[in-house]
Design goal:
Length: 500
C-alpha cells in the first residue's frame, strides 16, 4: 500500500458510537460558529471514565476506555455522525467588556438523545480554534481532572451543573507556569450557551442573530416563555426572568454548600443556570466569608460572599444584551427583579434545610446569621461543622461540635436556642433531613491535588475512587473517612488560577 492510500484510509477511518447524533446548535448557521476538526494529540491514553454518565448517554463505558474510544474522545479519530464546531461568544471579564471570546479550546460534537432530553457533548482541550486568541487550545491534566471531579461533585450534591464523561491524556507538553502534559475532558450539557453568546450578537448589533439565538433557547429550554401573560406577553422578558430565577437558585446552592466558582465572568454563566467552566473553583475549608479561591483575582471580585451580587451584575449584562429584543427598559428591569426575591428565598430554604428545619421561618434568619458569624470568628471547617451538627441532631453527643469552637460559651448559647427551635418532636426527622442536606464529602482542593499527583505518575485509581465518593457525598464510604477529615496545612498553600 503506498503512502497516499494509507493516508486516505486513515482519513476515512471513523468511530461509530452507535449514537443518533443531532445538530440543533450547528443548524443555527455560520454566524454562530466555525466548523473545524480537533487537533490530534500524540499517543493518548485513558485517564478516567464516568460510567454512570456513559450509561445515561447510552454509551458503553468500556468502549470509552478502549483504544479507539480514547482516540475518538481525544479528537484524533472522527466520530461518525458528529459535526465538530467551535462557537463564538463575547463577554465581560472581571467587570470589563472583553469583546469577542469564544470556544478557544472547546469543540462541540453535537447532541445525543437521552431519557433526560438531548445532551451535547464537547471536547475541552482539543486544539486551536479561530477563537483561541493568545491561547494554545489545550488543557492540562491537572485542570482537566479538576473539572471532571468538580462537575461530578456538584452533580452528586444536587447542584445544577454541566457534567463530565471522561478524561484522556497525552504526554504532549503544554506550557503553563511550568511544563505540564495535555488532556481532554469531555463535557456534557443540554447546551453550552452562555450569557456571552447573547452579549456577542447584541454588541455587534446583529439583532437577527440575537433573535435567532433567543428563539433557539426559548423553544428548547424555556417554552413556557411564549405562553406567559406576564410582561404583557413579552417572551424575551419572560426568558430574562426565568434565567434570573435559575441563576438565583444555583447561586443559593453554591452559598449553602460553600462553593466558590472563582471566575464568574459573563462568558462563564450558563443560560440554563448551570455551574459551568470549572477553573479555580474551590469548596471552602475553614469558613471565611471573604475567601478568594482564584489566585489571579487580586481585588477579590469573585470572593465567596460576592457571588450573589456578581450573579445579579451578570444578569444585568444579559438584560442589556436582550434589550433590543425586549424593547422596553422597564420590562427588562422588572424581569431582573425576580433575582432579588428568589435568591434570598432560596438561600433561606437551603440554610433552613441545613438546620433540619422543614418549614424555615423568617425568624430563623437570625439563627443562621449567628452561627455563620461564629464559624467565621473561629475559622471553623464549614463542611465538618454541618455534618457534625447533623450527627448531633440525629442523636450523638454535642462534644464533636463543641470541639470545633474556641468560643464555647457563645456556641452553647446558640445550640440551646437552636435545639429549642427544633423542638423535641421533630428531632429525628430533622437529623435525617440534615444528613441528606449536609454532605460528608466535598471535593476539597487537597483531595483533588492528591489524586492529581498520583495521576501525574499514571496511576488513576485515586481519581476513580474520588469520583465514586463525590458522586454520592451524603453516603458513608467505608475506607474513605480520610476524605471527610480536616485539610492538611499545605492545603491552604495550593494556588489555583484561571485557564490552565
Ligand atoms: P476561561 O476564563 O477559562 O473561561 O477562559 C476565557 C476564554 O479564554 C474562553 O474564550 C476560553 O475558550 C479561552 N481560553 C482559555 N484558555 C485557553 C487556551 N489554553 N487556549 C485557547 N483559548 C483559551
Ligand atoms: Mg470560560
Amino acid at each position: 500500500m503506498d503512502r497516499m492510500t494509507e493516508t486516505a484510509e486513515a482519513a476515512a477511518a471513523q468511530m461509530d458510537l452507535g449514537l443518533p447524533w443531532q445538530h440543533g446548535f450547528a443548524a443555527l448557521g455560520s454566524a454562530f460558529h466555525t466548523e473545524l476538526r480537533p487537533t490530534p494529540l500524540p499517543a493518548p491514553y485513558p485517564v478516567c471514565v464516568n460510567r454512570a454518565l456513559a450509561a445515561e448517554l447510552g454509551l458503553d463505558a468500556d468502549l470509552l476506555a478502549s483504544r479507539e474510544g480514547v482516540e475518538a474522545f481525544t479528537g484524533n479519530l472522527p466520530i461518525d455522525g458528529a459535526r465538530p464546531l467551535a462557537s463564538v461568544y463575547s463577554g465581560h471579564q472581571f467587570g470589563v467588556w472583553a469583546g469577542q471570546l469564544g470556544d478557544g479550546r472547546a469543540i462541540l460534537l453535537g447532541e445525543v438523545p437521552t431519557p433526560a432530553g438531548p445532551q451535547e457533548l464537547q471536547l475541552k482541550g482539543s486544539g486551536l480554534t479561530p477563537y483561541s486568541r493568545m491561547g494554545d487550545g489545550r488543557a492540562v491534566l491537572r485542570s482537566s481532572i479538576r473539572e471532571f471531579l468538580g462537575s461530578e461533585a456538584m452533580w452528586g450534591l444536587g447542584i445544577p451543573t454541566t457534567r463530565a464523561l471522561c478524561v484522556t491524556g497525552s504526554d504532549a507538553p503544554v506550557r503553563r507556569e511550568e511544563v505540564e502534559t495535555a488532556a481532554v475532558v469531555t463535557r456534557v450539557s443540554p447546551t453550552f450557551v452562555r450569557f456571552g453568546h447573547f452579549e456577542h450578537f447584541s454588541a455587534r448589533e446583529q439583532y437577527g442573530e440575537l433573535a435567532k439565538l433567543a428563539d433557539y433557547v426559548i423553544d428548547r429550554f424555556y417554552p413556557g416563555c411564549r405562553a406567559t401573560a406576564k410582561f404583557a406577553g413579552n417572551a424575551h422578558a419572560a426568558l430574562l426572568e426565568q434565567v434570573s430565577e435559575r441563576t438565583a437558585a444555583m447561586v443559593a446552592q453554591w452559598q449553602a454548600v460553600g462553593f466558590c466558582h472563582g471566575v464568574m465572568n459573563t462568558d462563564n454563566m450558563s443560560i440554563l443556570g448551570l455551574t459551568i467552566d470549572y477553573g479555580p473553583f474551590q469548596f471552602l475549608d475553614a469558613f471565611d466569608p471573604g475567601h478568594i479561591c482564584n489566585h489571579s483575582d487580586e481585588q477579590g471580585r469573585y470572593a465567596y460572599n460576592k457571588q450573589p451580587n456578581v450573579a445579579y451584575w451578570n444578569l444585568f449584562c444579559l438584560g442589556q444584551a436582550l434589550l433590543p429584543l425586549i424593547g422596553d427598559q422597564e420590562l427588562a428591569l422588572a424581569a431582573l427583579e425576580s433575582y432579588k426575591t428568589v435568591f434570598p428565598r432560596e438561600l433561606e430554604a437551603r440554610m433552613g434545610a441545613k438546620l433540619g428545619l422543614a418549614d424555615a421561618r423568617p425568624e430563623d434568619r437570625e439563627l443562621v446569621e449567628a452561627i455563620l458569624k461564629l464559624l467565621a470568628k473561629d475559622r471553623v471547617d464549614y463542611t465538618i461543622f454541618w455534618r457534625r451538627l447533623s450527627r448531633h441532631v440525629a442523636g450523638e453527643p454535642a462534644d464533636t461540635v463543641r470541639d470545633l469552637f474556641l468560643q464555647r460559651e457563645e456556641l452553647d448559647a446558640w445550640l440551646a436556642r437552636y435545639l429549642q427551635r427544633l423542638g423535641t418532636n421533630g428531632r429525628d426527622a430533622a437529623g435525617e433531613l440534615m444528613l441528606r442536606t449536609n454532605p460528608k464529602y466535598v471535593l476539597r482542593n487537597h483531595l483533588g491535588e492528591l489524586a492529581i499527583r498520583q495521576a501525574k505518575l499514571k496511576d488513576y485509581s485515586a481519581v476513580q475512587d474520588l469520583l465514586a465518593v463525590v458522586q454520592a457525598p451524603f453516603e458513608e464510604h467505608p475506607g474513605h473517612d480520610d476524605k471527610a477529615g480536616f485539610p492538611p496545612d499545605w492545603a491552604s498553600h495550593i494556588e489555583i488560577s484561571c485557564s490552565s
